[in-house]
Amino acid sequence: MNKRTLRNCAGAFAISILVLPLVAFLILAGLWGAGRFLIISEPPLSQVDVVAVLSGGEIDRIDEAVQLIQKGYARYLILTDTDAMADSGRRMTDYLFSEAANRGLAVPQIDITRHTASNTREEAAAIRQLMEERGWRSCIVVTDPYHSRRAQIIFSNVFRDSGLSVQVHSVRGHWYTVRGWFLHRAGWKAMFQEYLRIFATLLGLDK
């Protein structure tokens, strides 16, 4: 191997030393950005009339909602009526109701929406209807971090011109984080599904 070839190899090696970390950083930044978009930036929470828990996800949604009520952010809890089933074989709504009661909420504090919902838009409409019936003017909606962006879009649309205010709040301490979602298989699944559903929502195809 002649000196020219050695110089070329050394130059290529030096370039790779500089380029590879940059490529790795750009890939990592792209993953962080993709995950970060799904999580809305929350302003400090303000006191509201009611906390609403969207169906689905793990029990940590109800844990978060009960903690908000116990901290004085609201007095009442809304659960949405869905056809979903809990691992116990019970209806998810019944399961969440009993779990909320087990965590210290009085039964009169817990309310359930009137119509069975099959998606987030229907849940938002049912929550709006119940709030109007009860005279509640403001709510905090609790959901998973990766679902918070789409929930905010949907609730903003459904609550438009209602005079009701809504804050979407992500479960704290959740496994889906900006810097770690791509380390979980469930994180990749959630990311792809949420982006597809956001596009469908923006196109009006999520009804």
Strand and helix map with partners:
Blueprint: H1 3-38, E1 50-53, H2 60-70, E2 76-79, H3 92-102, E3 110-112, H4 120-134, E4 138-143, H5 148-158, E5 165-170, H6 185-202
Parallel strand pairs: 1-2, 1-4, 2-3, 4-5
Domain tally: 1
Q: If helices are DSSP runs of H or I spanning 4 or more residues, what is the number of helices?
A: 6
SS-based class: alpha/beta
Named at the architecture level, the CATH assignment is: 3-Layer(aba) Sandwich
Distance between the termini: 68 Å
Instruction: Give the C-alpha Rg.
Output: 23 Å
Oligomer state equals single chain
Q: Determine and state the CATH class.
A: Alpha Beta
List segments where confidence is low: pLDDT < 50 over at least 5 consecutive residues. none
Q: Roughly what percent helix?
A: 40-55%
Report the CATH topology name: Rossmann fold
Gross geometry: globular
Strand order of the largest sheet: 3-2-1-4-5
Relative strand content? 5-15%
The total beta strand count reads 5
* CATH level-4 homologous superfamily: HUPs
SSE pattern: HEHEHEHEHEH
Quick recap:
With about 210 residues, the chain is of the alpha/beta class.
Describe the 3D structure:
With 207 residues, this protein is an alpha/beta fold. It has a single domain, classed as HUPs (Rossmann fold, 3-Layer(aba) Sandwich). It has six helices and five strands, in the order αβαβαβαβαβα. It has a five-stranded parallel beta sheet with strand order 3-2-1-4-5, sandwiched between helices. The radius of gyration is 23 Å and the shape is globular.
